[in-house]
Amino acid sequence: MSSKISALTVGSPALTTDLIPIDRAGSNFSLLASDIAALAGSGIGSAGQGGFWGPGLAWDALTVAKIALGGIQIGPTANKVYVMQFVLNNSYTIRKVSWTATNNLVSNSGTCGIYLPNGNKLLDGGLFNTLTSPAVQTNTITAVVLPAGVYYFAQSTTSTSAGTFLGIQANTGDASNVQKIYQANSVRMGVAANSTSGGVLPATLGTITASTFDAVSVQGIGTPFFEP
Question: How far apart are CA 200 and CA 194, in angstroms?
């Protein structure tokens, strides 16, 4: 496929000269299929390029400082799915999800995923054992494209109070107040009606009951790393 730039001849009177130099033969301006493929494979769509933490958090000093506070409880009730709305400002192609457990318990696991605003599951991050070895667990998934837009981040654990993973503490007074403001006029975080089964996130969230990520509901917001 090749597209030429036409002359600037619209107007009254019509332009008789170009505002910028243009190769009218089109030999120096073309859009080929190979060019499109190269663009599609560049930037944050390529392996090792970019990524985000948990609910769309960028790699910056503030995020790193918050995560570095330590492990958090991702679900006080086994198999319940806790969600938080977030916005992606860029498009990502996700192929790997990494997380770290901060307690060492056998036969327990946590999981995470991303849902569309209508509650349909878009990405399942898989299971992560609540074991501290290996230090970092990585699940490789079938590539999923996330265009810029609004999503729900989901987290769940198979054992009450045992699913402790790297995340951001949210059970302090100030954090709770911020969350209440965030969803004062719309349900942006809370507990989904549908639950996990065998550690697998449900295909749909169902109705979301509003609540904050605090000691009453969830004590923290998980921060797995989603990357191309």
Answer: 11
Cα dihedral 109, 45, 85, 151, rounded to 10, equals -100
CA atoms of 126 and 103, how far apart (whole Å): 18
The 10s digit of each residue's pLDDT in 117-157 is 999 999 999 999 988 888 899 999 999 999 999 999 999 99
Residue 84 is part of which domain span?
A: 50-227
Q: Are residues 31 and 60 in the same domain?
A: no
Does any domain span residue 175?
A: yes
Least confident residue range of 28-32, 84-88, 89-93: 28-32
Report the candidate in 181, 185, 180, 186 with the shortest Cα–Cα distance to residue 212: 180
Angle subtended at Cα 132 by Cα 130 and Cα 134, rounded to the nearest 5 degrees:
110
Q: Which tokens hold the place of 220? A: 């923290």
Task: Decide if 45 is inside a domain.
Answer: no
The whole-number pLDDT of residue 126 equals 96
Answer yes or no: do 217 and 114 share one domain: yes
Looking at the structure, do residues 25 and 116 belong to the same domain, yes or no? no
* Cα(203)–Cα(169) distance, integer angstroms: 28
Joined together, the tokens standing for residue 140 give 């490789």
How many structural domains comprise the chain? 2
In-domain check, residue 185? yes
In 3D space, the residue among 128, 136, 130 whose CA is nearest the CA of residue 111 turns out to be 128
Residues 133 and 207 in one domain: yes
pTM more than 0.85: no
Rounded to 5 degrees, what angle do the CA atoms 203, 167, 190 make? 45
Check pLDDT > 90 for residue 27.
no
- Do both 17 and 120 map to the same domain? no
